[in-house]
């Protein structure tokens, strides 16, 4: 990950920070990239060896063609009435046989290479997702969704295309070049001298061009990613943009980004496509030289006409691949730029792994201790300083405070989405850093203000936290969450697919679905972060019994604005500006006539 | 592709020029083997040295000309295809912005995104490559054929007779692969969706330890994508080897036929050598052409997806005089005009007249809703989750048209008000509204021409000034993607500031203060009451305290009106309302 983006910390809480960046990946040396790509290829050694064998044999068969046609021409060149038909038939028969074999082998080779490259891109997408699931929450608070998605779709595809077509070409090219070279030497070693000049010229030129073009392709990928990020953001805000009639202004912004992306593409393209014609030119020059010097040699009687023909054909075959490779190098530049972003995401630093001796949290009683905890999102801005508290099993801890006081921070620490800077968070007396994250998080049930549902049926969404939940379980939970009657009124009932634009489902209904989801879980600790903020009071009352049931016998942490819901809490933490300013019970806090008292009175003002 | 002809048209001249230059390059390239044949067949037998160097020199000149032409034309192709793509993307984005909510629901956001990004990208690539290869390959093919015909028509016919076979193969392969590429893009849409869900739901997924499950879900779409990808690849891969095979067999026949012709004295062996040269050229050209078809298949699939969106009909068209729109089955709609809206003299500022609406067409989300608001009045809407509260706003802002009844502003049917005029009347904060990357100020201004002073006033009224000034850069403080560095309450106050900044005629707040604590909420209400008394306000809330002072209160249940009146009236007449009120206010009274 680039240093400059590591600095950038975005998070929940009221701290200030720099803007986020688009994900760039790291600039890496080409050697490193090739090594990484090789590791992917290496996993499929069998296919690779097969490809190599097929490639060599198909090239050999097709390369033998010119030799045969040369022999045929030598047999024909004897002149009118003297053609050696026996040799001609022989050669023609062999040519046909070799070409057929070569084509079959080429198709097989293509098939193998396609398999190989698709396997690799599948593996890459898999690896990216694998690492994505290990990345800390803070990573996603930091980068644009569209940008990350663009890596999985566009960048992997670019690398993949190189793998399937370019790699194959290079492989075949190598064989062709080597064989042609041997053939040419066997026919006329003197003429080969010409290539001593033209081949290095090609190599030097393509290398120079590649170095020049590479940053352009890197920019092309990055700018496209930025455009995707912008599109993602703006399309998701489409309703608001329309509500304010700001379509034109957004369009203008889009056009700016669009122009930059297209310009980057055009620049890379315009410069990258110089390679092809330039190398063709060098090849034409060498053809000319072969022809002129070949003619001179023929005049001196050093070479036969048929051999000269074969030589010219081989020289074309010889330089053809060099031409191809030059073209491919231009393509490879974009593949390298894409690979940088792909590996950047695969290598993005994951959540610190569980300690090797991490214990699995089991037989949870639900005693939670915060012991002299210090925490900050950004080093110089402490959010929580030397804070201690104890939540006994089955107790209810409420966290209150004005908007933006940093209440969610406590949740981030309890669930270990972030690690404390000092002190410790303990569950049943064990430091949570000594526990596996999975077992820790499983010990909690969590209902968040931000409702999250995925594309799938209502049944799947409710049963999400409890694999194997039966339809009866789900219906019971939905009934308890007072969402059953809504669901059963839908034409498809529990099988209704929730699509990302389910306009007909309100935020409140979504929240009820997430509450139903939580009802199915049987963890010992419960976190409710404004869990009913979008549910109307009437419904909230109706689900209160169910909520009480949900909270029964559990260690509960509740963030709420409606102070009425938390009066019965065993322990109330009052937060303000990221600090815990008061704690105690409702009665003790009211008696203290402090900040809590002030907040409590405010809700009855009108 | 032809559907995008409109975009290519303005550049047709430029593209023709590009291709002309390409053509020149290709012709020069054709001369190289031609001169070579002269050297080998005509000059060498004479034994003269000078002509060898002369023709050699000509070959070099051709090579140089070919280089210049190709480099220039390639550059030009990059420029024109870039410009076309830019315009296309622009129009597509514009179209997407203007799609009706209903159309967007059908299209889905991930699909809209991938059409805008990866599909237009494919088109860009196709356009550039078509220009680069599109003329060169056919010209080399044609030129090669012409040259051969000039040298020995009989031998040429042998080779030419092979070409239709190749045509058939290319046709069949393209026909099979285009649908596959289309399918591939659809699967790609679902890959995007899974990724998106995993990014936005990262906390929930981690909390529920569903990482493995999600991996599985991703693996499924990933495998499906790979499968289709592979299938399409396998079919496309047939083209190359079979083209080579057919041409190579043709070549073999040429050698055989050539042997007879030389033997009978009707041809020379030098001709066969030149033939072999042209043959390599034709083979490469043919392979180039088949490559174009492969690109075409991919580009065609993308072009189709883009054109599909561009061709969507304009929904929610402005209808003159409030005549019923295409979605309306109401016959009475057309009879309303300026004054008939109320029938009581001055038209109401906002009026719903017997409105019935359903999102899906099955069941009703709102039934026979009617209410009237005069300028400066306020309406509070209360109702359980899913009762249809937000739907009222959706209809008022004309994101959807009602199936029955009319929505009127100043006595005019909203369907008759041009979009810009209609939307300029509103200030809105939705539930879970959109906060974008940028500064706080950007988010409040939201692309509108609004004075700094007004932005400051709005932020003060929205109770946002305090948290804004606590930030180092104040109004210029950065807001990250999705507003992730703001708390729920800060976001809401930002959104309310946005709604107030233009001093709108109509203010719509859809549960916009649910994350505010009571105190902040009370201050907000006070500011609204004091400073926005001319503004007609519709408030959706769950707290009675937020709406009890509204001029009218509407209680909805399951799309039906179960209470309408002032707080006091409803306390008397509406039992549901009384229950809610008692539950919320009662507790306060007993202990305060």
Structural summary, described in words:
The complex is a heterodimer of chains A (606) and B (592). Chain A is of the alpha/beta class and 606 residues long. Chain A folds into 2 domains: 30-346, ABC transporter transmembrane region fold (Up-down Bundle); 368-602, P-loop containing nucleotide triphosphate hydrolases (Rossmann fold), CATH 3.40.50. Chain A is 61% helix and 11% strand. Chain A is built from 21 helices and 12 strands. Chain A has a 6-stranded mixed sheet with strand order 6-9-10-3-11-12, with helices on both faces. A 4-stranded antiparallel sheet of chain A has the order 2-1-4-5, with helices on one face. In chain A, strands 7-8 form a two-stranded antiparallel ribbon. In chain A, β4 (422-427) and β5 form a beta hairpin. Chain A is elongated and about 120 Å long. Chain A starts with a helix and ends with a helix. Mean pLDDT of chain A is 79; it is low at 1-21. Chain B has a 6-stranded mixed sheet, with helices on both faces. In chain B, strands 2-1-4-5 form a 4-stranded antiparallel sheet, covered by helices on one side. A two-stranded antiparallel ribbon of chain B has the order 7-8. With 592 residues, chain B is α/β, with parallel strands linked by helices. Chain B has 2 domains: 2-181 and 237-310, ABC transporter type 1, transmembrane domain (ABC transporter transmembrane region fold), CATH 1.20.1560; 320-425 and 504-591, 3-Layer(aba) Sandwich (Rossmann fold). Chain B contains 22 helices and 12 strands. The model of chain B is unreliable at 322-343 and 587-592 (pLDDT under 50). In chain B, β9, α19 (518-531) and β10 form a beta-alpha-beta unit. The termini of chain B are far apart. Chain B has helices spanning 5-8, 12-46, 50-98, 101-107, 109-134, 136-151, 153-160, 163-200, 202-207, 211-236, 239-263, 269-310, 389-396, 419-423, 440-445, 452-461, 465-469, 488-501, 518-531, 544-547, 567-573, 575-591, and strands at 350-357, 366-373, 378-383, 404-409, 412-413, 426-429, 438-439, 478-479, 506-510, 536-540, 552-557, 560-565. At the A-B interface, α3, α4, α5, α6 and α7 of A face α2, α3, α4, α5 and α8 of B.
């Amino acid at each position: 990950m680039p240093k400059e983006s590591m600095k950038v910390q975005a998070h929940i809480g009221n701290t200030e920070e720099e803007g986020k960046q688009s994900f760039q990946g790291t600039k890496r040396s080409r050697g490193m990239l090739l090594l990484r790509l090789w590791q992917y290829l290496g996993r499929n050694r069998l296919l690779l060896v097969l490809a190599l064998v097929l490639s060599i044999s198909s090239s050999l068969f097709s390369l033998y063609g010119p030799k045969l046609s040369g022999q045929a021409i030598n047999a024909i060149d004897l002149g009118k009435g003297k053609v050696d038909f026996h040799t001609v038939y022989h050669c023609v028969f062999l040519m046909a046989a070799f070409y057929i074999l070569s084509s079959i082998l080429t198709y097989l080779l293509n098939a193998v290479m396609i398999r190989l490259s698709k396997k690799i891109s599948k593996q890459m997408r898999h690896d990216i997702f694998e690492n994505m699931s290990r990345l800390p929450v803070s990573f996603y608070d930091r980068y644009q969704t569209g940008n990350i998605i663009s890596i999985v779709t566009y960048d992997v595809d670019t690398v993949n295309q190189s793998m399937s077509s370019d790699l194959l070409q290079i492989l075949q090219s190598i064989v062709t070049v080597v064989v042609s070279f041997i053939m040419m030497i066997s026919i006329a070693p003197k003429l080969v001298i010409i290539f001593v000049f033209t081949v290095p010229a090609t190599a030097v030129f393509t290398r120079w061009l590649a170095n020049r073009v590479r940053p352009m392709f890197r920019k092309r990928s990055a700018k496209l990613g930025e455009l995707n990020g912008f599109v993602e953001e703006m399309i998701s805000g489409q309703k608001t943009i329309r509500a304010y009639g700001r379509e034109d202004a957004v369009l203008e912004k889009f056009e700016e980004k669009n122009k930059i992306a297209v310009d980057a593409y055009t620049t890379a393209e315009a410069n990258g496509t110089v390679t092809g014609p330039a190398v063709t030119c060098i090849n034409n020059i060498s053809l000319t030289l072969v022809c002129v010097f070949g003619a001179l040699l023929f005049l001196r009687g050093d070479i036969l006409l048929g051999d000269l023909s074969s030589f010219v054909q081989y020289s074309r075959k010889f330089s053809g691949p060099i031409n191809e490779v030059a073209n491919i190098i231009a393509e490879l530049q974009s593949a390298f730029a894409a690979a940088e972003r792909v590996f950047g995401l695969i290598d993005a630093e994951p959540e610190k792994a569980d300690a090797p001796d991490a214990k699995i949290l089991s037989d949870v009683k639900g005693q939670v201790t915060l012991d002299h905890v210090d925490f900050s999102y950004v080093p110089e801005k402490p959010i929580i300083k030397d804070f201690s508290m104890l939540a006994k099993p089955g107790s209810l801890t409420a966290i209150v405070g004005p908007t933006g006081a940093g209440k969610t921070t406590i949740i981030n620490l309890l669930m270990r989405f972030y690690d404390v800077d000092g002190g410790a968070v303990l569950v049943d007396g064990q430091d949570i850093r000594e526990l596996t994250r999975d077992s820790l998080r499983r010990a909690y049930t969590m209902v968040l203000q931000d409702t999250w549902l995925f594309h799938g049926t209502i049944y799947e969404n409710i049963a999400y936290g409890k694999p194997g939940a039966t339809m009866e379980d789900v219906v019971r939970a939905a009934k308890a969450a007072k969402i059953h009657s809504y669901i059963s009124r839908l034409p498809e009932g529990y099988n209704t697919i929730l699509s990302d634009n389910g306009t007909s489902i309100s935020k409140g209904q979504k929240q009820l679905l997430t509450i139903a989801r939580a009802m199915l879980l049987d963890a010992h600790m419960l976190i409710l972060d404004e869990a009913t903020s979008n549910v109307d009071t009437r419904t909230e009352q109706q689900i209160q019994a169910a909520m009480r049931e949900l909270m029964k016998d559990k260690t509960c942490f509740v963030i709420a604005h409606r102070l009425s819901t938390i009066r019965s809490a065993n322990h109330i933490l009052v937060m303000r500006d990221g600090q815990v300013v008061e704690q105690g019970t409702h009665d003790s806090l009211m008696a203290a006539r402090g900040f809590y008292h002030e907040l409590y009175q405010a809700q009855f003002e009108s | 592709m032809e559907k995008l002809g409109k975009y290519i048209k303005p550049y047709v001249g430029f593209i023709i020029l590009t291709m002309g230059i390409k053509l020149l390059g290709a012709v020069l390239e054709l001369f190289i083997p031609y001169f070579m044949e002269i050297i080998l067949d005509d000059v060498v037998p004479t034994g003269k040295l000078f002509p060898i160097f002369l023709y050699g020199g000509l070959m070099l000149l051709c090579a140089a000309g070919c280089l210049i032409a190709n480099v220039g034309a390639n550059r030009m192709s990059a420029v024109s295809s870039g410009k076309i793509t830019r315009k296309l993307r622009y129009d597509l984005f514009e179209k997407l912005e203007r799609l009706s909510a209903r159309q967007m629901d059908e299209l889905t956001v991930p699909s809209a995104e991938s059409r805008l990004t990866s599909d237009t990208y494919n088109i860009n690539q196709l356009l550039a490559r078509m220009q680069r290869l599109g003329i060169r390959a056919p010209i080399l093919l044609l030129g090669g054929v012409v040259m051969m015909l000039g040298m020995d028509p009989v031998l040429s016919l042998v080779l030419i007779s092979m070409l239709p076979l190749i045509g058939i193969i290319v046709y069949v392969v393209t026909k099979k692969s285009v649908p596959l590429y289309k399918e591939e893009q659809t699967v790609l849409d679902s890959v995007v969706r899974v990724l998106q869900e995993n990014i936005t739901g990262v906390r929930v997924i981690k909390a529920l330890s569903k990482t493995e499950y999600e991996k599985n879900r991703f693996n499924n779409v990933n495998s499906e994508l790979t499968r289709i990808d592979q299938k399409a690849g396998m079919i496309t891969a047939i083209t190359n080897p079979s083209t080579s095979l057919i041409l190579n067999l043709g070549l073999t026949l040429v050698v055989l036929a050539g042997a007879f012709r030389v033997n009978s004295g009707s041809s020379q062996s030098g001709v066969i050598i030149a033939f072999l040269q042209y043959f390599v050229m034709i083979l490469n050209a043919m392979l180039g052409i088949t490559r174009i078809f492969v690109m075409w298949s991919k580009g065609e699939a993308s072009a189709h997806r883009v054109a599909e969106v561009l061709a969507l009909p304009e929904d929610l068209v402005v209808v003159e005089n409030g005549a019923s729109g295409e979605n309306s089955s109401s016959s009475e709609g057309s009879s309303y005009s300026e004054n008939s809206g109320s029938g009581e003299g001055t038209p109401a500022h906002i009026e719903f007249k017997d409105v019935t609406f359903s999102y899906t067409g099955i069941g009703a989300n709102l039934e026979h809703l009617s209410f009237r608001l005069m300028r400066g009045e306020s309406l509070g809407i209360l109702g359980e989750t899913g009762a249809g509260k937000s739907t009222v706003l959706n209809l008022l802002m004309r994101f959807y048209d009602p199936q029955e009844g009319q929505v009127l502003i100043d006595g005019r049917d909203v369907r008759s008000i041009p979009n810009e005029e209609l939307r300029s009347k509103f200030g809105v904060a939705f539930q879970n509204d959109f906060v974008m990357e940028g500064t706080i100020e950007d988010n409040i201004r939201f692309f509108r021409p609004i004075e700094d002073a007004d932005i400051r006033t709005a932020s003060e009224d929205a109770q946002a000034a305090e948290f804004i000034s606590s930030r180092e850069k104040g109004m210029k403080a950065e807001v990250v993607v999705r507003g992730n560095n703001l708390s729920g309450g800060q976001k809401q106050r930002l959104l309310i500031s946005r709604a107030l900044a233009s001093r709108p005629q109509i203010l719509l707040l859809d549960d916009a203060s649910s994350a505010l604590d009571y105190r902040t909420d009370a201050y907000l209400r006070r500011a609204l009451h004091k400073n926005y008394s001319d503004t007609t306000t519709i408030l959706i809330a769950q707290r009675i305290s937020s709406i009890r002072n509204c001029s009218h209160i509407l209680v909805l249940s399951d799309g039906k009106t179960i209470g309408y009146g002032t707080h006091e009236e409803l306390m008397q007449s509406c039992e549901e309302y009384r229950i809610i009120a008692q539950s919320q206010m009662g507790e306060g009274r007993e202990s305060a």
